[in-house]
Amino acid sequence: MTTLMFEILAAWLVAILVGVPIYAALGLAAVAFVALAGMPPDIVPQKLAQSINSFPLLAAPLFILMGNIMNSSGITDRIFGFATACVGWVRGGLCHANILASVIFAGMSGSAVADAGGVGALEIRAMKKAGYDAETAAAITAASATIGPIIPPSLPMVIYGVSADVSIGGLFLAGIVPGLLMAGALAAMATVVARRKGMPRHGFPGARELWTAYKRAHWALMTPVILFGGMMGGIMTPTEAAAVATVYALFLGLVIYREFDIRHLPRLIVDTVETTGMVLALVMAAAALAWCLSIARVPQTLAPFIVDNIGNPLLFLLAVNVLLLLVGCFMEALAAMLILIPILTPVAAQLGIDPIQFGVIFVLNLMVGTITPPVGVVLFITSRIANISFEAMSRAIVPWLLPLMAVLVGLSLWPKLTTWLPRDVFGF
Q1: Which of 73, 87, 190, 354 is a Cys-bridge partner for 95, taking CB atoms 3.0 to 4.6 Å apart?
Q2: 89: burial class by Cβ within 10 Å (0-12, 13-18, 19+)?
């Protein structure tokens, strides 16, 4: 069966290269394996149904809906205004405000695309108006958007936790320190770029204006507090927190800020259903193929081979980082996760790598892939918002990849950066 599966995977790769949709190629590969292995054909629909019968997976559409509501409720404007008041007075201040706003928004949306398309659009417009060149504005916006899926809540962490059977609460906690490290590394790069380019510097706005900006954004800033407080206090699970956050976002838009038009809700729900449908189609097809891989003993075959030839956990993590960075250049992050998780996680476990550390490294690699050409979806979004060519965007993003790579190296070398907080809180 192992040989049969490798042959099917080769055909699957050819199908991907000729343009067959990834979810269709995954599903057809599973059907082909079951048929050629002489198994009952009803196994595939059973596996498809089982894969979405998951309580944690309910968080996915809720987080997507929450991000859509926040983008339509004036919340992003208040967040960026507060971030600008806090750090906008230093040289290149709007670059730093961009990063800080992404950190705050990350605690609400959990999506790089939502960050880039929501608060990112506001950031780019403000930076261009203040005299920043479009390439720098778009590049820092794209780079800081990768923080969104690392700091909780995080849609990719939910998908990873469900697929790899790892605690989603533990993954959420593990992402806090790496997310802040990413922000700090990007801020350091922004300082260097600001001095080199002679970016504008404004005076400190004063305590009164800072307080005014905080009051204007206070209820929006309480969203991460409610989410973390509820999860850490044992009041709600990550899935329940997603539901609470969605209701809270709706409450802010309708009652507190009164900038959300209830007539837009049906359209946002339809958008959420469309996005969720694409996510679930990938999850279902990938789960069916993952089951086929397990039956064909592909992970069991590859794991000893990799362990025997690599053996060292650090060398394995280096190989995984290189592989995922390359895959991220050509494949959408969610699809890459669902394909590679069942293959790589058993090897990581056999080498004694903490599953939470591996999960954060896995997600961060693929988030960096969203800002690398030729398939970086965040690059496409930010280049379109900034009205620059994709080629110019691809050149502008290169310096901002360096601090993210530095964080990735740090997470690989020092596991405690990702594991100490979950262990202190949950005892993992």
Answers
A1: 190
A2: middle
Question: What region, left, alpha or beta, does residue 309 occupy, with left being phi > 0 and alpha being psi -120 to 50 degrees?
Answer: alpha
The whole-model pTM stands at 0.78
Q: What angle do CA 303, 365, 183 make, to 5 degrees?
A: 145
Q: Is the pLDDT of residue 6 over 70?
A: no
Question: C-alpha angle with apex 300: 307 to 327, nearest 5 degrees?
Answer: 70
Distance in angstroms (rounded) separating the CA atoms of residues 102 and 96 = 10
pLDDT given at position 114 = 64
Residue with tokens 């705050």: 104
The first and second tokens of residue 269, run together, are: 């729900």
First to last CA, the chain: 37
* Dist CA 261 CA 59 (whole Å): 24
Treating both helix axes as pointing N-terminal to C-terminal, what angle do 416-426 and 390-413 enclose, rounded to 10 degrees?
60
Encoding tokens for residue 172?
Answer: 């959420």
What CA–CA distance (Å, rounded) separates 404 from 169? 24
Q: How far is CA 84 from CA 26, 193, 214, 259, 294, in A?
A: 45, 18, 11, 21, 51
Is residue 285 a contact partner of residue 107, using CB atoms and an 8 Å limit?
no
In DSSP notation, 52-100 reads T--SGGGHHHHHHHHHHHHHTTTHHHHHHHHHHHHHTTSTTHHHHHHHH
Reported residue count of the chain is 428
| DSSP H stretches of helix in 296-415 | 298-309, 313-330, 333-350, 355-369, 377-386, 390-413
Domain coordinates of the chain in residue numbers?
2-426
Query: In which band, very low, low, confident or very high, does the pLDDT at 55 lie, cut at 50, 70 and 90?
Result: low
CA atoms of 175 and 161, how far apart (whole Å): 13
